[in-house]
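pasting for ref
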Amino acid sequence: MTKYSEEKIRNYAHRLWEKEGKPEGKADEFWRQAETELDAESESSDPGDQPNAKTIPG
């Protein structure tokens, strides 16, 4: 389950759909892809994974 609002997922899925040429009958696929990509983006930008002054040697 994703932590994003339905509106954000819908908008992202719509952009993916447009990018792929607006194929018919694939709404569920684009919805799942949007959730997956948003979740992955969120995980990769987790501030806990970023180095800071305390973790950089020097």
